[in-house]
């Protein structure tokens, strides 16, 4: 059964459509360059509303397991692959990728030259696309407000560690919480709309999570967020990194085609050390806008020089544009979570600021 991915500029790519595909689906078309990690990508709320193109030729060979979900269900609008493995070959697999996508009615297209699509996106920039049984142009609708689409109103608690961390949820990945719990923290996840709860919980530290879309969608919360950042040791991850920049008066801008993959080199500005990171984002902090703030650049992207991390010169506030929890991807940056937890006083109530 044939299907098509049609981009906003009119380029159309034909492939084999999944059998449960009933209606045309639109979304922002992005590409992911990792060889593995498709399960984490599909369930990462940062991909909310997007059509993901996997550049690696063979996807799905180790199936889907019960351990690597970043949320309870797929977050993507659609998937495009060259080849989706028909046979699952991993002892932890409980279902094939094809069956998983069909179970959740996520349309996917195979037998497509995904690298050709990637070249088009790199040339023309990220754009809207439509998946359909025939070549159909997508609407001109601009994708906005994704953090509200990924919104979870619930407050949840994990772990029983000595240090209490509040994760402000903009569309968090489960692996962030899992890493904190593994490092003996108690974690409470609260929605970004319930910021007053932070003071009631009186945590030892704050994590601003990843999330989908434009960080300026959270503009009305920036004043309150800055007060929280100045009151508690804080770590911002991806979207949370951008929120920290905005809260302190910097600006963000949209990249032409974003960073998505598990192979992005980042440089530690102070030491000069380079490490490989996992990334997923369209927006970055505008470095020039930092000149009028107290924030300093701590990491930079080796490929394009964009800002990959920030720190406050006198307060325990740090951030990373990449994903230090490393799912999917290398574990080169796990130390950043350790550094954040080290910044937190070991005794409850101990003063952080002079």
Structure description:
The protein folds into two domains: 2-132, Carbamoyl-phosphate synthase small subunit, N-terminal domain (Glucose Oxidase, domain 1, 3-Layer(bba) Sandwich), CATH 3.50.30.20; 150-353, 3-Layer(aba) Sandwich (Rossmann fold), CATH 3.40.50.880. The chain has a ten-stranded mixed sheet, with helices on both faces. It contains nine helices and 19 strands. It is globular, with a radius of gyration of 20 Å. Helices cover 19% and strands 31% of the residues. The chain has helices at residues 38-43, 97-103, 114-124, 146-149, 174-182, 197-201, 222-229, 239-247, 335-342, and strands spanning 2-7, 12-17, 25-32, 50-54, 58-59, 78-80, 83-84, 108-110, 127-132, 156-158, 163-169, 185-191, 205-208, 234-237, 252-268, 274-285, 296-301, 307-311, 317-320. By secondary structure, the protein is α/β, with parallel strands linked by helices.
């Amino acid at each position: 059964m044939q299907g098509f991915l049609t981009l906003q500029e009119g380029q159309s790519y034909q492939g084999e459509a999944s059998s449960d595909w009933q209606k045309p689906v639109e979304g922002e078309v992005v590409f992911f360059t990792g060889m593995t990690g498709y399960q984490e990508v599909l369930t990462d709320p940062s991909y909310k509303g997007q059509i993901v193109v996997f550049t690696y030729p063979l996807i799905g060979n180790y199936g889907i397991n019960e351990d690597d979900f970043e949320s309870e269900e797929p977050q993507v609008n659609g998937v495009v692959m060259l080849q989706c493995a028909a046979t699952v070959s991993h002892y932890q697999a409980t279902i094939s990728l094809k069956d998983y996508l069909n179970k959740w009615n996520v349309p996917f297209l195979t037998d497509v030259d995904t690298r050709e699509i990637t070249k088009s996106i790199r040339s023309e920039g990220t754009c809207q696309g439509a998946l359909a049984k025939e070549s159909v142009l997508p609407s001109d609708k601009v994708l906005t407000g994704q953090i509200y689409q990924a919104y979870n109103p619930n407050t949840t608690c994990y772990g029983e560690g000595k240090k209490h961390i509040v994760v402000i949820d903009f569309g968090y990945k489960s692996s962030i919480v899992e890493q904190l719990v593994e490092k003996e923290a108690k974690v409470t996840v609260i929605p970004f709309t319930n910021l007053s709860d932070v003071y009631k919980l009186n945590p030892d530290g704050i994590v601003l999570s990843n999330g989908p879309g434009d960080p300026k969608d959270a503009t009305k919360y920036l004043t309150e967020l800055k007060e929280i950042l100045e009151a508690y040791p804080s770590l911002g991850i991806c979207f949370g990194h951008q929120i920290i920049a905005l809260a302190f008066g910097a600006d963000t801008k949209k990249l032409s085609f974003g960073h998505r993959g598990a192979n992005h080199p980042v440089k530690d500005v102070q030491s000069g050390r380079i490490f490989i990171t996992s990334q997923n984002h369209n927006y970055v902090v505008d470095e020039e806008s930092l000149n009028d703030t107290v924030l300093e650049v701590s990491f930079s992207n080796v490929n394009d020089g964009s800002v990959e991390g920030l720190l406050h010169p006198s307060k325990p506030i740090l951030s990373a544009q990449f994903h230090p929890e490393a799912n999917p991807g290398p574990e080169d940056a796990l130390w950043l979570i350790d550094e954040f937890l080290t910044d937190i006083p070991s005794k409850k109530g101990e003063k952080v600021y002079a």
